[in-house]
Amino acid sequence: MATEQTASPADQAAGTPEDIIVVENIDKWFGDFQALDDVSLTIKEHEIVVVLGPSGSGKSTFIRCLNRLEEHDSGRIFVNGIEMNDDVRNLNAIRSEIGMVFQQFNLFPHLSVMSNITLGPQKVRRMARQEAEALAMQLLERVGIPEQAEKYPAQLSGGQQQRVAIARALAMQPKIMLFDEPTSALDPEMIKEVLDVMRELAQSGMTMIVVTHEMGFAREVADRLVFFDEGAVVEQGTPSHFFENPQEERTKLFLSQIL
Amino acid sequence: MTNEMPVPDPAGGGIAPPRARRVVLPPYRQRAARPRSVRAREWLRQNLVPSPTGTLLTVVTFAVLAAILGIVAWFIFSYANWRVVTDNRWLLFAGGFPHDQEWRLWVGLGFVFALVGASYGMWSSFGRRDILFMVPASAFGVFMLAHGGAALWSTLWFAGAVVLLAVAYFACRRVPREHGPGRTLAVRALSAVLMLSVPIVFMVLMAGGGADSDELSGYLLNLLLAPAGIVGGIFVGIPLAVGRASKLRAISWSCTFYIETVRGAPLIGWLFVALFILGDIIGGDLIVRTMIVLAVFTGAYMAEYIRGGLQALPRGQYEAGHAVGLPYWRTLQLIILPQALRISIPPIVGQAISLWKDTALISIILPLRELIGSSRSAIAQGEFITNRIEVYVFAAVMFWIISFIMSRVSQRIERSLGVGER
After folding, report:
1. Can you tell me the distance from the alpha carbon of A156 to that of A167, in angstroms, rounded to the nearest whole number?
2. Which residues of A, range 6-45, sit inside 8 Å of B by Cβ?
3. Distances (CA, A) of A20 to A96, A209, B159, B271
4. Is the CA virtual torsion B129, B130, B134, B135 positive or negative?
């Protein structure tokens, strides 16, 4: 739906064409509490960014701002060259380019797995039913649970539900995938199956922004790690920089607690 | 709690293994294999004569039950003169409906029965309990019809309606149960007819030389008013519930104002509004005005129940809808309302039953004779002046039948929608 807008004026403001997400100086307040404090970040196409930080550091708020589940109070956000503002057309264009996976899965419990996945393509992309179902089956095979298509979410394990949620997000054929602590609500033995799917997705060239506490995944898959504390980006760099040679005291403290 | 956890843990750890060995459950099959008479005796002992006090209570209860049953049986078969009901069945059921238009009543009944059968066939299936209810209900219907005048014809019409119910049931049983294009089409068609059923029945009864609206009375009137109020109430209630939850203050305050105002006065007061105020302002047909008031009144209650359902849904459902790219209204329509309405089914049905019985209020203030009003007319004939108990008992049973069906159907819906519950 959102066609390439390489020539739009917004794009100039948004830096080079491969900068798929540009965040400029955003602030976010919840009442008196400042959740994001002057955050700027640029993410390139096909980049895999893992966002780390203690709880309450603003990392979830940050990725929720990227598809406007939270509205930023000041600063600017460009996704795929389109500015995120009060224009609903922009918002819908951006949202159809961004898939999101939640900590609590948030599958639609009244719909079968198949309908969960085909809903977006059919209602937003206006895809024909057969086509959407074929796509859904393809995605369910990709996440490894094609046999669960006719079940309802409550009949699946947590790991399976999260894989359905990934398939649901992928069904919109997004350019970017956001993961908000995708394994935090899972039993330990189910974490791997979800991380495997995410790893495969990363290898396929998807642009991914992942909030997680899975350090192994971060070290192995991330192109860049971004460390948040008290609503601000404290430090960022490659995994080797981050795990072997962190510069900031807060980063060192956090890593010493979590590793 | 977390602080207390370690304390019982080591102790429990020490005790648990021997306890696990000690508790040996008797094999289930061994119990099941015991002779039926032994099991029956066991059941009797446990449930009826467990102890001296328990036995006494059982005896007293049975005595009271027997006395009540005896009185009821004596009333039904000996004391009561049911001629007041059977002789007045036209008055009680159809009131002032013109006799020469009787076929319209039967066509309407056939339509409703067909819808009942189709709905059962599509979404559920008849179980033993449904048959247990339907057989005596049909027998009661035939008994009511099998006296006097055109008894044969009415009985045939009634039988025809029952046949229609069965045909629609078996036709809809043939629709595949699994989700698919054929089923989707059938479900949509049936839902559309169900939603339009009240106007359709009105057309059948009134269009092209049928009854005038002031001729609609008796049980028929209750049966017409209640669904109009219930269906209308749901359609009024949904936007009110959504509006009350709106972020826009102007909208949420207006919806709250509406709900609190309507719920702040008794139905009888609103019926006066239908009779006098609405009559002066918009005029028009009294039955239509009454329906509007019933829908407006019920809508305020429905809105609160639906709002409860809306609030029970986690915010993540909205977020997931948005994240998939659905705009607000589509999220509401496709994700939120289907779940909220399902949660609200029990209180919605409660309100529906309540409104069904409240239709009896209409005859108190409005010049409309529903079943209770017709009952009074029946008594007012000199011949039956001593039979008021029979008429009111009959009216009570007629109200009970529909209430009972509604609560059974609600249980069905809840159970069949339970699939995929959180």
Report:
1. 14
2. none
3. 14, 12, 71, 63
4. negative
Query: Are the C-beta atoms of residues A139 and B352 closer than 8 Å to each other?
Result: no
Mean per-residue pLDDT of chain B: 83
Are A41 and A226 a contacting pair, CB within 8 Å? yes
Over residues B8-29, the mean pLDDT reads 47
Residues of B in contact with A82 (CB under 8 A): none
Tens digit of each residue's pLDDT (9 = 90 or more) over B37-71: 778 888 888 888 888 888 899 899 999 999 999 99
Among the four given CATH numbers 1.10.240.10, 1.10.520.10, 1.10.3720.10, 3.30.420.40, the one describing domain B91-97+211-417? 1.10.3720.10
Q: What is the pLDDT of residue B149?
A: 58
CB contact, 8 Å: A152 with chain B?
yes
The H or E element spanning position A35 is: strand A33-44
Between CA B323 and CA A100 the distance in angstroms is 6
Which residues from B are below 8 Å from A124, CB to CB? 324-326
State the smallest CA–CA distance between residue A30 and chain B in angstroms.
17
Q: Looking at the predicted structure, is the pLDDT value of residue B25 above 70?
A: no
Tell me, what's the pLDDT at A161?
Answer: 95
**Chain A residues near residue B413 by CB distance under 8 angstroms:** none
Partners of A92 on chain B (C-beta within 8 Å) are 325, 327
| CB contact set of A248 (below 8 Å; sequence gap of 6+) | A227, A234, A235
pLDDT at B30: 52
pTM to 2 decimal places: 0.79
Residue B347 is encoded by which pair of tokens?
């209180």
Residue B11 pLDDT exceeds 50: no
Residue with tokens 């239709």: B359
Nearest CA in chain A to B318: A106
> For the residues A13-40, what does the mean pLDDT come to?
86
Instruction: Report, as an integer, the average pLDDT of A172-177.
Output: 94
A258: which 2 tokens?
A: 């979590």
| Cβ-defined contact of B323 to A69 (cutoff 8 Å) | yes
Task: Say what percent of chain B tops pLDDT 70.
Answer: 88
Alpha-carbon distance B31 to B39, whole Å?
9
* Interface contact B325, partner A, CB < 8 A: yes
**ipTM score of complex:** 0.88
CB-nearest to B323 from A95, A112, A129 is A95
Which amino acid is residue B82, in one-letter code?
W
Q: What is the mean pLDDT of residues A94-110?
A: 92
Q: What is the 8-class DSSP label of residue A171?
A: T
Q: Which residues of A touch B188 (CB under 8 A)?
A: none
CA-CA-CA-CA torsion sign (A259, B4, B6, B12): negative
| DSSP-assigned letters across all residues of B221-284 | HHHHHHHHHHHHHHHHHHHHHHHHT-S-HHHHHHHHHHHHHHHTS-HHHHHHIIIIIHHHHT--
Query: How far apart, in Å, are the Cα atoms of B337 and each of B247, B253, B345?
Result: 17, 21, 12
- A115, A123, A148, A172, best to mutate vs chain B, most B CBs in 10 Å: A123
State the average pLDDT over residues B90-94: 86
B/e letters for A231-241, b = 16+ CB within 10 Å, e = fewer, are: bbbbbbbebee
Categorise residue B209: left if φ over 0, alpha if ψ from -120 to 50, beta otherwise: left
Which tokens is B400 given?
A: 């009970």
* B78 burial type by CB count under 10 A (0-12 exposed, 13-18 middle, 19+ buried): exposed
Measured CA to CA, the distance from residue B217 to residue B202 in angstroms comes to 13
Tokens of B50: 């467990």
The residues with which A42 forms a beta bridge, in sequence order, are: A22
B386 pLDDT more than 60:
yes
